[in-house]
Design goal:
Layout (H helix, E strand, L loop, with lengths): L8 H6 L1 E2 L2 E8 L5 E8 L7 E7 L6 H12 L6 H16 L3 E9 L1 H15 L8 E6 L11 H15 L7 E12 L4 E6 L12 E6 L16 H6 L8
């Protein structure tokens, strides 16, 4: 689901998988690209589960306008507030039909998904029933925000994260590899994506073992969502 939002709107609207069908999409001048899908809920009788999926960085000015401003500086001036407002509008519109709510995304999209889930847990977003989030190589939240009003919020979420408040609601999947410690002659599973390494990861980190080490000379190659597709149907992809 996190992959389809990288496609064109035409392909997104035609997307059907495991019962999920297109509901709507959102594109803003601030760079937000997102879509929402629904399926018949297996848990809540007579209702539908809804999945909000967010696209990662598009490159170029998006790296500056979104990654640097929203994530690194923690200012939340474009995509974060736009995504929260959109989520609230969808929930309000379909509230009588909503069973479980899911959020997902890769990279910056994963950051937006995780942030939305923390807002549910912290009371900033109200969902009719339950919710859960799965992210892929999402950066963590910054430890210090440049804007005082956001600094208070980010400090609170960092404190909640250390207490494990979000662990049952967010699974952050991270590409990892077995790294040899030459001093002790043992291997340890280490995350190797430099984007994922930023900040304080929200929720529970789930390490996925990469199968092909040909990308090791350029760690950023571990970041792409295609790395997850390569291991999706193997025993190395954890549930």
């Amino acid at each position: 689901m996190a992959r389809i939002v990288y496609e064109s709107d035409a392909n997104i609207k035609k997307f059907i998988s495991n019962g999920w069908t297109f509901v709507g999409s959102k594109h803003t001048s601030g760079g937000l690209d997102a879509a929402v899908f629904k399926r018949t809920s297996p848990t809540y009788k007579g209702k539908s589960d809804y999945c909000f999926t967010f696209r990662g960085t598009r490159g170029g000015k998006d790296i500056v306008a979104s990654d640097a401003v929203e994530v690194v500086a923690g200012l939340h001036v474009n995509q974060v507030p736009d995504s929260i407002e959109w989520i609230r509008s969808i929930i309000k519109k379909y509230t009588n039909d909503i069973g479980k709510v899911y959020f997902t995304g890769h990279s910056l999209g994963g950051y937006l998904a995780a942030w939305a889930q923390t807002e549910v847990v912290d009371g900033g977003i109200t969902v009719p029933n339950s919710s859960f989030t799965r992210t892929f190589n999402a950066p963590g939240i910054t430890l210090v925000a440049l804007k005082p009003s956001f600094a208070v919020i980010i400090q609170a979420k960092n404190a909640f994260e250390l207490l494990g408040r979000y662990d049952n609601y967010i699974s952050n999947y991270a590409i990892s590899r077995n790294v040899l410690n030459s001093r002790f002659g043992t291997y340890s599973l280490q995350t190797v994506d430099p984007v994922f390494a930023w900040g304080n990861s929200l929720g529970k980190v789930v390490k996925c073992i990469v199968l092909n080490d040909k990308y090791y000379n350029n760690p950023f190659n571990y970041h792409f969502i295609v790395r997850f597709e390569e291991i999706l149907n193997t025993s190395n992809f954890p549930d």
